[in-house]
Amino acid sequence: MRYLKKIGKLTTITYKQIGIIHTPFTSLENMPIQPGAAKSIEGKIEIYPEYSKGLQDLEGFSHIILLYHFHQAGPSRLKVTPFLDQQERGIFATRAPVRPNPIGFSVLELVSREENILIVKNVDILDGTPIIDIKPYVEKFDHPLGSKAGWLEGKTGKLNTTTADSRFRNNLPGSK
Amino acid sequence: MRYLKKIGKLTTITYKQIGIIHTPFTSLENMPIQPGAAKSIEGKIEIYPEYSKGLQDLEGFSHIILLYHFHQAGPSRLKVTPFLDQQERGIFATRAPVRPNPIGFSVLELVSREENILIVKNVDILDGTPIIDIKPYVEKFDHPLGSKAGWLEGKTGKLNTTTADSRFRNNLPGSK
Known about the structure:
Two copies of one chain form a homodimer.
Chain A: E1 4-7, E2 10-16, E3 19-22, E4 42-47, E5 63-69, E6 79-80, E7 89-90, E8 103-114, E9 117-121, E10 129-136, H1 139-142
Antiparallel strand pairs in A: 1-2, 3-4, 3-10, 4-9, 5-8, 5-10, 6-7, 8-9
């Protein structure tokens, strides 16, 4: 497959869906907004059988990095008012889905693997979301010491009492 | 832009390049294999001016999550022998670039922002790599406690003495 393509000044990058996640969340409204707020909620990742071999050895890791496509996100915006704030922020300074490239990122607890099926915990993801990559979470690679969280400092305490609403939803027929 | 497209059984997802990173690494050989092994190496992320507004407020964060396209990776494989190991592992249990979707992920230190230019540190990325997304790193969201690193347990100590070689490189003319 050719990934990169130039169309005038625009370069596009094309990936393929490698699986799907099944979760209890069939509607964006009232969903947890981050894995930390979705404690103990389980999901089932179904990787398509043709990629099954690539999952070998993943079960040794307690956590995975999941990359997925926000398939129900509305059109991209450069400024948004995030769920945890009252003022507009640049989209790249937020985790909102209405990004120029609507790619979602979550660190999830891996409960088990059975061939091409992964059971994961702390799921903050909509049912039916397309999966594009899975990586092992490695604290030594992925956890910088002493990080500062900008406008989010002091606001993450509200995680457990803040849920999503429809502000980033698309309006296509069939969307909930 | 329409992101999702169905072609028979295959669903493709098309994103756009939103910028480029400039780094000292013009060849895959001898590169650091993770940010932790690239301490103090600086890079310059140039986000295309049309997305500049989306970077507002990012400078409050000490670290960013960078998603990029491994443009020099060879064809995808489901089993690889990673740089830090002697035996084959499933690709999704590694961070190797020859993934079904060659998306790179690094947590980088953000030194400064000047309009659409970000100066970052601990860069383990090839010069000229296309950028597809930037997210703020938020410890509260992204750092699970007590994680276990599977086959990598006890092996990350070799990070600083292990560098990349050509095993995951493509063989296209012009690739180094």
